[in-house]
Amino acid sequence: MTALGTLRVLTLAAAGACLAGLAWLTARAFAFGRRVYLSEPRGRAGRGLLYAFGKGMADKESVSRHLPTMLGGVVYHTAIFAALLDVVWTALPVRPGPPPGVFRPVLLAGAVVGPALLAKRAAKPHLRRLSCPDDFFANLFVDVFLALAFLRTVIPSLETALLAVSILLFFYIPLGKIRHCVFFFFTRVVFGLHFGRRGALPGSESRA
Amino acid sequence: MADATARHDPYQDKLDSLTDADLAAILAELRRRLKAPEIAAAHTCIRCGLCADACHYYLTNGELEDVPAHKLNLVLGVIKHHFLPGGRRAGGWVGARKLDKAVVREWVDALFGRCSGCGRCTVNCTSGINIHGLIRAARGALAAAGLVPPELQSTVMTAVEQGNNMGIPRDEWLETVDWIQDELRAETGDPGARIPVDEKGARLLYTVNPREPKFFPLSLLAAAKLFHAAGESWTFSSDRYDVTNYGLYSGDDSCAGLLSGRLVQAREDLGAEVLVLGECGHGFASTRWEAPQWLNRRFGFPVKSVLEVAAEYVRQGRVRLDPSKNKKPLTLHDPCNLVRLGGVVEEQRYLLENAVEDFREMTPNRRNNYCCGGGGGQLAMTRFAKRRLAAGRLKAEQIRATGAMVVVAPCHNCIDQLTELGKEYGLGTEVKTVIEIVADALVLPRKNA
Fold first, then answer.
1. In sequence order, what E strands does B181-224 have?
2. How far apart are CA A130 and CA A140, in angstroms?
3. A34 reaches B (C-beta below 8 A)
4. Considering the domain B10-147 in this protein, what is its CATH number?
5. Of A73, A145, A197, B438, whose CB count within 10 A is highest?
6. In this complex, is the C-beta atom of B35 within 8 Å of any C-beta atom belonging to chain A?
7. Nearest CA of chain A to the CA of B302: how many Å?
8. What is B323-441's CATH topology?
9. Domain ranges in chain B?
10. Each residue of B15-45: b (16+ CB within 10 Å) or e?
């Protein structure tokens, strides 16, 4: 097997280890027990869930008061998921074809936005003090990953570097703050159900 | 603590002399309260800081210590260190912190002194982390070590030991009810008008904030008028009528459960169909939403806010309202525990639209209302009074912007804070409850004695 072939295999193995790590963290979280609600619902939990992942993603002051940051965050996360998909695609032994061309502008946008978010965290005194080293490191790490993912679309020989960084990133994901890629959805589900059953979210009010 | 006076403070002594056993008690209680959602929250918060602008403390004070994410991460840091895999090894790299005396001091200052538990940060969190819930869990952990600020703890204990948080003796309560009954007869012109007490088989058991019999008896009269006009079958309990529950604020689930359990038991003893909660935001959240958890049982009977009951009366035509009886421009404050966290959002608006001529909404309102600053036990914790009044500036500005002459709030805690804000910021507004306004608008058939 060539060195590149070995890297591809290791990349897939690292991605598997990442998923296993995240699954283990999730299992550990559930080991603390689930919360069973004993009060009678006043609203509709399902509607609360829909709100949490629909309108509620934008219907909050953290969006309306911080639109550039939130849009930056959306672009950044879209680019990260695209890059991860791109890397896995690249590492697969059998590929139907090259990655879609639409990835390139998305990756470029993410590679630009990431450092901007990092600069904001470093520049704003309260945000800087609120942060821990992982907040800076994870951002920087992902920025390097995104930059390489973009550059690889222009300079194919960078595939080796991209895969090497990807392997490290996959191992780091369950260890640091990037694990929120799974737990964000968990928390959002809890938010929607908790407030939806109370009828406290728009659209979750009981029909009665 | 910024607001602490220079006087000798045994509470500070207690904080200075914490033992390992105290720290162990805090950790044990914190662990007891952790379920999957709290662990997920510890993995979810990315410290984006976008919650800062949701907090009335931060918006009026601007200190890092007021940022909800800072308060949250004081708690999450301890959870990470003590309860999450790798937390001890990763340490400061991921914001994990060992619980020690310094952390406890920070907890007390931030979680009791800079948070009213309004949940505005929670609904505006980018991820939807239950920030106020985690802060309450940490308060409860402090309670396990006897570290609730003494002014708040004494309010809890007064209710536990004397049956209501104002320490009103039973005879005094019954005398007040008797006097209000006379007033009801005079107001309605109906000599048969009654305020039933301990009446078995009544449909509703009505509970009130003890501040009503103590300081605002006309609130009792307003509710009695409403029930009378609706021809309702209702009753007070002679000894279990306190809707408040400062255990919600202290975080002490056992006391909180005991207090809510009394109301549940009173309903069962009297055989009432519905437990009706008077105008008290945290009382509603406590008994409607939290008490089943505290008591570990499903209730199997309806628990309703008096606003829901009153709105039903109007919808069903059981009472008639004349808005011309309330001509002054009026605005509505949304109590956080009733509205944002409780889901009772439109009933009060429906009532006011039918009961007043000039109803003006504050901006923002409903789920996005600003806390008045009186919740979370802040009114009891005098050591943090300066912060409370400063944090109320947003609410004062909201009220002033409406040009209203009357502010109504379906919550007696809020009413106390709004009254203080009126003095502090020179608002010149009258402060009333929703049911008082509804009672003023009631069209009563006159009956001659």
1. 204-207
2. 17
3. yes
4. 1.10.1060
5. B438
6. yes
7. 8
8. Rossmann fold (3.40.50)
9. 10-147, 156-315, 323-441
10. beebeeebbebbbebbeebbbbbbbbbbbbb
For B338, the closest chain A residue by CA position comes to A200
Which residues in chain B are closer than 8 Å to A186, comparing Cβ atoms? 36-37, 40, 44
Q: Which residues does chain A have within 8 Å of residue B315's beta carbon, measured at their own beta carbons?
A: none
The number of residues making up chain B comes to 449
Q: Which of B183, B145, B171 is nearest to B18 (CA)?
A: B145
Give contacts of B293 with chain A, Cβ < 8 Å.
Answer: 37-39
pLDDT digit of tens for each residue in chain B (449 aa)?
Answer: 545 456 789 999 999 999 999 999 999 999 999 999 999 999 999 999 999 999 999 999 999 999 999 999 999 999 999 999 888 888 999 999 999 999 999 999 999 999 999 999 999 999 999 999 999 999 999 999 999 999 999 999 999 999 999 999 999 999 999 999 999 999 999 999 999 999 999 999 999 999 999 999 999 999 999 999 999 999 999 999 999 999 999 999 999 999 999 999 999 999 999 999 999 999 999 999 999 999 999 999 999 999 999 999 999 999 999 999 999 999 999 999 999 999 999 999 999 999 999 999 999 999 999 999 999 999 999 999 999 999 999 999 999 999 999 999 999 999 999 999 999 999 999 999 999 999 999 998 765 54
B270 contacts: CB under 8 Å, gap ≥ 6:
B198, B199, B200, B201, B202, B205, B235, B237
Other beta carbons within 10 Å of B404: 22
CB contact under 8 A, A34 and B35: yes
HSE of B155 in the Cβ direction (CA atoms, 13 Å)? 24
Q: Is A188 in Cβ contact with B126 (below 8 Å)?
A: no
Closest chain A CA to residue B294? A38
Please give the residue of chain A at the shortest CA–CA distance from B284.
A198
Q: How would DSSP label each residue in B124-187?
A: HSSS---HHHHHHHHHHHHHHTT-S-HHHHHHHHHHHHHSSTT---HHHHHHHHHHHHHHHHHH
**Candidate from A39, A127, A184 with C-beta closest to B292:** A39
Strands B430-432 and B406-408: parallel
Nearest to B343 among A29, A132, A199 (CB): A199
- B51 to chain A: closest CA residue: A62
d(CA B222, CA B146) in angstroms, rounded, equals 39
Q: Is B254 on the interface with A (CB under 8 A)?
A: no
CA angle A133, A138, A144 (to 5 degrees): 130
A102 vs chain B: nearest CA distance in angstroms?
27
Domain regions of chain A by residue span: 3-32+61-197
Mutation target to probe the A interface, by most A beta carbons within 10 A, among B43, B57, B70 is B43
Phi, psi of B99, deg, nearest 5: -70, 125
Query: Which chain A residue's Cα is nearest to B125?
Result: A62
* Interface contact flag, B94 A134, Cβ < 8 Å: yes
Task: Look at B47 and A32 and tell me if their CB atoms are within 8 Å.
Answer: no
B129 touches chain A (CB under 8 A): yes
Tokens standing for B438?
Answer: 């509804």
Q: What is the ipTM of this complex?
A: 0.95
Is B43 in the A-facing interface, judged by CB distances under 8 Å?
Answer: yes
Q: Provide the β-strand partners of residue B303.
A: B275
Residue of B nearest to A27 (CA): B36
Instruction: Let me know if domain A3-32+61-197 sits in CATH 1.10.20.10.
Output: no
Across chain B, how many H-helices and E-strands are there? Answer: 23, 8
d(CA B210, CA B229): 24
